[in-house]
Amino acid sequence: MKRFAHLFRELDRSTATLDKRAALIRYFREAPPADAAWALYLLSGGKITGARQRIATTGELRQWVGLLSGLPPWLVEASYDQVGDLAETLALLVDDPQTTLPERALADWIEGQLLPLANRDEKERREVVLAAWRGLAFDERLLFNKLLTGALRVGVSQRTVQQALAEMSGIDIARIAQRMLGAWTPSAGFLQQLLSTEVLPSDRRQPYPFFLASPLEQAAETLGDIESWILEWKWDGIRLQLIRRDGEIALWSRGEERLDGRFPEIEAAATQLPRDCVIDGELLAWIPGSAEPLPFTALQKRIQRLKPGAKTLADAPVRMQVYDLLELDGEDWRERSLLQRRAALKSLLATQATASATDPRIVLSSRVYAKNWASAAQLRDSARERGVEGLMLKRGASPYQAGRRRGDWWKWKIAPLTIDAVLLYAQAGHGRRSTLYTDYTFGLWDGDTLVPVAKAYSGLTDAEILELDRWIRAHTRERFGPVRSVDAHQVFELGFEAVNRSARHKSGIAVRFPRILRWRRDKPMADADQLQTLQALAR
Amino acid sequence: MAGMPDLVQLTESGLYCAAGDFHIDPWRPVPRAVITHGHGDHARSGMGEYHCTEASLPILKWRLGEQHYHGYRYGQTFVLGAARVSLHSAGHVLGSAQVRIEVDGEVWVASGDYKRQPDPSCAPFEVVPCDTFITEATFGLPVYRWPAASEVAQEMVAWREQCAARGEAAVLYCYALGKAQRVLAELQAHTAQPVFLHGAVANGVEVYRRAGIEMIATQPVSETRSDQRYAGELIIAPPSAAGSAWLRRFGRVQQGFASGWMRIRGNRRRRNYDRGFVVSDHADWPDLLRTIRETGARRVIATHGNTDALVRVLNEEGIAAGAFTTHYGDEA
């Protein structure tokens, strides 16, 4: 495990992507294949523990470190609040070993020690963990704890890992990305297949990596002639890849999860398609005949239902607004232009069975036409009434790329709704923001009381974060574990995409994507907005 | 002792001893101040009189200019009003002191900032038995435990060598007074290669050298030739130099920070340092507890840092503990 701990440290220290990639290549070249496969799995966000595979709960880990260090539970918790990372806290609270354990390979630790331990009784699991804590040096102890507490989060994107593998093996990065989609078991065999130069039968069952748009930050005019762009509405739903191969249907989410069975109406419609294909689009809750989709909260009810009943299907019927064609009759179309792909998609859908014509479930996301960027901006301003988030701008000549690549696909969202809200609670952040109060809860006036309405974590500059952290410490009213309530005084302008009614929230509403736009030092808290103002915006 | 007022009380101007009519490290102008050490959050200008150690005089004169100073040897007793006062080494920086106050047989000690680790650039901490101990608590949580400074100095040298192999300069940020000189003194045992200094650090190094502290050879960056190449060199600068135009002359650099805060990864990552070196001039958690026990104090007052956890642990051990809210802690 020393080798992987060393890689982890190099990645954690490095601030340059090139250095990270070089460290990854060195590791993948030198590590035994079984270790490299586990390293790949872990660096891609894979976990070896889970609800059904319990090695140590976070509660048990806290308790066990108390046993080993002699610290009371509250002091373990206070330490965690300071560090903001449980694995690191545990590593810091344990003494460095006098004599270290004999070296074991990463794969041996995981397959030989940890996985067989899953769901054993508490004593057995505790003994293995305590023995590791007593015998591992700091870097390995930290890594060991990361294996137990979840994802590594070491500041390496999946794309960086894939670039390293591509550079090392000479295999196209798109193929590597495709082979890594979905669930896979880390093993020397998997790694061999992943880096195989042959086209494998399994390549045929995989989805394609999604092409992601970047937010448009410059003026739209800088994109040049609007004629070379395709404009579409930006839907507020779930990105979905529909695969139909040899008549069989699979649905994949952007989270690389198979969604089969959850959306039977989409699968049924897909079997009606005249040809095999892979389609990219957005899933939305949409009442047939309605001009606009239901709000996102309606769709949320469907996501968790593995086998939706008749009532759910009737209350929140779904449809897919599709906008891209990645494969047709087994042929990869991603290198063709978007114009060609859209044209083929349109004719594919035009030949759907007539039964679906009155209640279509797979619908071409219509192209939005504008003479120039100024009139496009006007259309964008109507987005909220249409129940969409803004416009997508896609270069007509663009191929379908993998991941978030700037240049050809832009999301051009409407200006957010805003409110002025009062800071009520603060909690210490995690990772880079550990030891600072960076997770804030804001409230609005309901009569003469302030009601919490939104949490926000982003939008302040580093200097503002430090200043606000000091203010919070000096103006704490009460502490509830890691949360502090503060004097109601500071006003912030919050931006958000939409407001929905919600029975789950005390305020009766839920805001989408809240973030801080400005610190309103000029505004007395009495002038913050009323809860009613926000409620009036709710859909 | 019941009914006797506390020897030291917290006032708007700072810690105040009524019996001796003096303040300790006040943050507002007062007629008579006892100063524990020269850091800016403890030694401020505007006081009528400054009572301090002889060893700290060069630092105070450098930072505050000519003032009405009274210098004392470590352990020398002097009388202020009804109080017998003496200053005892705190091991924090050159000349740093704890303040021992005795009135009618009752003894209070105010620690200022202190550490217990060996430090070749200043006198070691002295345990002073007392009834009440006013302690700092900058690193008052059990996650803060320091490695030996000599190990850290070796890591710094190894880092500079890695930078050399990549054609980069190694810029190490250290507090200009105390930390930088300690690092320079520690480096002597591990390398002979001279170290370049930012102007703010060079002044402090000069003060230490004149006081007879041995450190590795240094050269101010301001006195180098314009064609000086810095790849493979170690440069010590104050944290405020990070991100400034001053860095441009060094070409490609890696940046490190020497501080107890670097014990936590998030602190390093947030500031985007390539390296964090865990070296602190404050007591770590085990040393805070050890020191409090060794003083034999039955009552403890924590002044700055993570006071909550320390106060609770002490109370659970049967030591009466509380906290003062002070203006200290800008320099850790």
Q: Could you characterize what this model shows?
A:
The complex is a heterodimer of chains A (539) and B (332). With 539 residues, chain A is an alpha+beta fold. Chain A is 37% helix and 23% strand. Chain B has helices at 57-64, 149-165, 179-187, 199-210, 265-271, 285-295, 307-316; strands at 9-11, 14-17, 22-24, 32-34, 49-53, 69-72, 77-80, 83-89, 97-103, 106-110, 132-137, 169-173, 195-197, 218-220, 234-237, 253-258, 275-277, 299-305, 320-323. The longest helix of chain B has 17 residues, at 149-165. Chain B starts with 8 loop residues before the first strand and ends in a 9-residue tail after the last strand. At the A-B interface, helix 5 and helix 6 of A face helix 5 and helix 7 of B.
Give the overall average pLDDT of chain B: 94
Report on the biggest sheet of chain B. Answer: 7 strands, mixed
Rg of chain A, Å, rounded: 26 Å
Number of strands of chain A: 22
Distance between the termini of chain B: 35 Å
Distance between the termini of chain A: 53 Å
- Counting copies of identical and different chains, the oligomeric state is heterodimer
Tally of contiguous helical segments of chain B: 7
- The helix count of chain A comes to 20
Condensed summary:
The complex is a heterodimer of chains A (539) and B (332). With 539 residues, chain A is α+β, with helices and mostly antiparallel strands.
Q: What order do the helices and strands come in, and which of them pair?
A:
The complex is a heterodimer of chains A (539) and B (332).
Chain A (H helix, E strand, L loop, with lengths): L1 H12 L3 H14 L2 H11 L14 H12 L3 H11 L2 H8 L12 H9 L7 H14 L2 H12 L8 H12 L3 H7 L8 H7 L16 E2 L1 E2 L13 E6 L3 E8 L2 E6 L10 H8 L5 E9 L10 H8 L6 H6 L2 E11 L2 E2 L5 H13 L11 E3 L2 E2 L4 H9 L1 H4 L3 E6 L7 E2 L4 E5 L3 E12 L8 E10 L2 E8 L5 H13 L1 E5 L2 E4 L4 E6 L1 E4 L7 E4 L2 E5 L11 H7 L2
Parallel strand pairs in A: 1-12, 2-13, 7-9
Antiparallel strand pairs in A: 3-10, 3-11, 4-5, 4-6, 6-7, 7-8, 11-13, 14-15, 14-18, 14-19, 15-16, 17-18, 19-22, 20-21
Helix pairs in contact in A: 1-2, 1-9, 2-10, 3-7, 3-12, 5-6, 6-9
Chain B lengths: L8 E3 L2 E4 L4 E3 L7 E3 L14 E5 L3 H8 L4 E4 L4 E4 L2 E7 L7 E7 L2 E5 L21 E6 L11 H17 L3 E5 L5 H9 L7 E3 L1 H12 L7 E3 L13 E4 L15 E6 L6 H7 L3 E3 L7 H11 L3 E7 L1 H10 L3 E4 L9
Parallel strand pairs in B: 3-4, 4-5, 5-6, 10-11, 11-18, 12-15, 12-16, 13-14, 13-15, 16-17, 18-19
Antiparallel strand pairs in B: 1-2, 2-3, 7-8, 8-9, 9-10
